[in-house]
Every structure is written in C-alpha cells, then in structure tokens.
Amino acid sequence: MQTGTLLALAIYFIAMLGIGFYAWRKSTADTEGYLLGGRDLGPAVTALSAGASDMSGWLMLGLPGAIFATGLGQAWIGIGLIIGAYLNYRLVAPRLRTYTELARDAITVPDFLEERFHDESRSLRLISALVIIIFFALYTSAGMVSGGKFAVSALGLSYTDGILLMGGVVVVYTVMGGFLAVSLTDFAQGCIMFAALVMVPLAAYLTLGGEGLAGGLAAAEAARGLSLTQMVGGAVTPIAIVSAAAWGLGYFGQPHIIVRFMAIRDVKDMPTARRINIGWMAISLVGAILTGLIGAAWFAARGGAPADAETVFLVLAQILFHPFIAGFVLAAVLAAIMSTISSQLLVTSSSLTEDIYKTFFKRSASERELVAIGRGAVVLVAVIAGLLALDPESSILSLVGNAWAGFGAAFGPAILFSLRWKRTTREGVLAGMIVGTTVVVGWIILGWSAWLYEIVPGFIASSLAIWLVSLFGGPPSHAIDIEFDAAVAASKGA
C-alpha cells in the first residue's frame, strides 16, 4: 500500500481514538452517562449516529456487491429501508423518548419493556436481553467479517489480522468513552461515508462516460446472462421484491438504532433528526447502488474484476483516486464497519450489565462497578464475535440479514404495540418476542429464506401473537399511559 493511503488511514484511526478519549473525560462516571450519553445528544449527532450504526459494512461492501453480481433487483432493499426508517421516526421515536424517561429513566430496551408493563417476574427483561446478546453476537461478527475482507483487499493484511485491527481499535474507543464516544465517532464516520458514496460512483461514471457505461453494462449483462438494470420482472419476482423491501420492517426492533431515540436531548428535536437521517440515507443508498451498477460496467469494459463481488467499492476506490484520497475513501469503509460494531458492542454490553448482572446477580452494585462491568462486557462480546467471524467465506449481507430479521421480528412488533396500543399486555409482548424469534430461526434452519426473507413471516407471527394474547388475556396496566398522555399534553402546552 502506498504511503499516502497509509497516512490517511493513520489520521482516521488517531481521530477515532481521540474522540474516545474526549468522551472518556466527559461522560463515563455513571451508567446513564456510559450507556446512554446522559440523554443529551443533539439532532444531527442522533441522526448520523443512527444512520452510521445502522448501515454498517454492508452499505459499502454487501449492497454494492449484490448489485454488482445480480443487478438493480437488490435496490428494493434500499427502498424498503428508507420507508422503514421514515416510519420509525414517525411511529416510534417521539413516543419512545417520552416513555423511557417516564419508565424510571429506562436506558435499555429490556429495561423499558419491564417498566412499561410492570413486570415483576422479570421474564420480559430476561428474554429480551437474551435475544439481544444472541443476535448481536451474530450481527457483530458480520462487522468483523467486513473488517477481515477490508484488510485483505485494501491493506494487504491477512484476514485474521484485519479482524484483530478493526476489533482492537473499536474496543479501545468504546471501552474508553462509552455511548458518547460511539455516537460522536458515528457522526464523524457518517460524514465520511456520505462523501465517499458520492465520490466513487461519480468518479467512475465521469471516467467511463455515457457511451462507456452503456457498453460496459451490455457486456456485463451478456457475461452474467441477466439484466442488471431490471427492477421488475424476470428474476425479480414479486416475492423477491417483498423479501428485499421487507428489510424496512426491521427498523422498529433494532436496539442499536432505537437507543438513539432514547438518548436525544429533547423530543422536539426529532423532526430535525428525521430530516437529516432520511436525507443522509437516501443519498448514501443511491451511491452504494450506483457503485455496484457502474462497477459492473467498469470491470466488464476494462477487465480486472474483483474475485469477491463485495470488494467492488474498495477496488474502484484504489483505481480511481490519488493514494491519499483513496485512503480517505477507504476510511469510509472502515467508518461503516466500525460505527456499527461499536454500537452493537455497547448495546450488548448494556444488556449484560443492566439486564443480567445488575438485575439477577447484584442489585446493590455501585455505579463505578457497573461501568467497569460494562467495559469488560464490551471486550468479551468482541472476542466472541471475532471467533464467530473467522470463516472468510461468510457473506456479509447474509449474516446481517439473519440478525436484522431476528431483531425485527422479536422487538419490532413488541415496541410498536407497547407504544401505540394501550390494550397491549405483558403476556402479549412476551408471546410475541418468543414466537417472532422462533419463526425466524426456524425459517432459516429449514432453508426457506431463499424463497422469502425470514423477517416477513417472523414479523407477522409476532404481531398476531401479541394481538391475540393481549386481546384475550388479562387487563393491561394503564398507569404509565396516563403519565405519557400528561407529558404529551404538557409539552404541547409549553
């Protein structure tokens, strides 16, 4: 690798560690500071932090690779995600921010569900914490796979060394600065990702030209035996469209995303955060899609196609730009990978600390002890995820898809019903989480995911379970709903 590229990457790593040090000095004295940033995030940091932690390495590697290999039919994933993110801000974000503060300042999703339904049995907290720990181990391993592939393609390191490098830097700044470090680094990383996803497809198009793009696409389609530009018809069946667009359903249940809603400083900042987030998402997703499509034309016309389709963004960046600029673009891939890993590590750490250790082992634990346990949990989860990621043949998009579906089906309906339907009961939510998780896991094991994305049956089954069990079960508790209505009325009158 050239000196300019290494210099740009070194600057990036130092900047991330510097943010971690700043956050360590500012907000890690207690668990609310370490795990939720003191509920003091501004709208811009909330928006880009949610976006960067959401998109992960699949935005820079998995999605361009899928478009590169099979065409625009995969763009339905992006369409579904934009719709899902918008609805998440409308249906979940404002209410969750208010409810969690009323629910004894709940700082985790399991904590919120327990307080929301006055669950003295602790079953809601235990089941939801276990779902978080299991699926985030898988989700974080997808980020580690991205790091390994990045190291091989861009840095000339071994796959294992890449996992150690990415994981090591992320663990250091997450352990030091907690949620604030994760959110501030996510903001910086979101800006880098945005710029890179505009630069790479634009540079590739300008280099090829209109005629070169058309000719390259024709050659690529002939080589693959399919239409890369077709979004409906042919191999892009109605079921395939539903499966791709259904990724948007997952937003309602992603703990590492909705925790940002809990941390924003004021519910009145939500509309600003929503506009920033949706704009960032739309442009970034278009950039990722165009990278895959124009990349297919580029390599068909000029040769030298990457052996792994999921590295098309990396290879194009190194071909098109000066080494120093290429280093900046490659840092965007690191940003996508590291922003998600750090968020997932912290949310898993919060469940292990607040929902398992403090709740079931030592309720009298001091704030200092809990922060120390949280830091240890970050390291533990990182090690487990790294071990799960040791297979270099793992597909990033497939790993992310499985974990995304698990969270979407387990928590999505539970969060929506608990915030939007006052008839919802503890038993209903518990049934929904168990049924949703079981259906997703069963669907994957049976191999039916190739026919229909597992989040669709999982989300439907979970919703039906919550509705039916709540409808025919005992009466719900309305105490927190009354407080919520009063808080909303007061905010409107302010």
TrEMBL record:
Subcellular compartments: Cell inner membrane; Cell membrane
Entry keyword Transport: yes
Keywords per UniProt: Amino-acid transport, Cell inner membrane, Cell membrane, Ion transport, Membrane, Sodium, Sodium transport, Symport, Transmembrane, Transmembrane helix, Transport
Main location per the UniProt record: membrane
Single GO biological process annotation from the record: proline transport
Highest taxon in the source lineage: Bacteria
Cellular compartments per GO CC: plasma membrane
Gene3D superfamilies: Sodium/glucose cotransporter
PROSITE patterns in alphabetical order: NA_SOLUT_SYMP_1 (PS00456), NA_SOLUT_SYMP_3 (PS50283)
Pfam families: SSF
Membrane topology: Multi-pass membrane protein
GO molecular function: L-proline transmembrane transporter activity; proline:sodium symporter activity; sodium ion binding
UniProt keyword annotation of Manganese present: no
Transmembrane domains' residue ranges: 6-24, 67-87, 124-142, 162-184, 191-208, 228-252, 278-300, 312-337, 370-390, 396-417, 429-449, 455-474
Catalysis performed (reactions): L-proline(in) + Na(+)(in) = L-proline(out) + Na(+)(out)
Function of the protein: Catalyzes the sodium-dependent uptake of extracellular L-proline.
Family membership: Belongs to the sodium:solute symporter (SSF) (TC 2.A.21) family.
Protein name listed in UniProt: Sodium/proline symporter
Species: Sphingomonas rhizophila
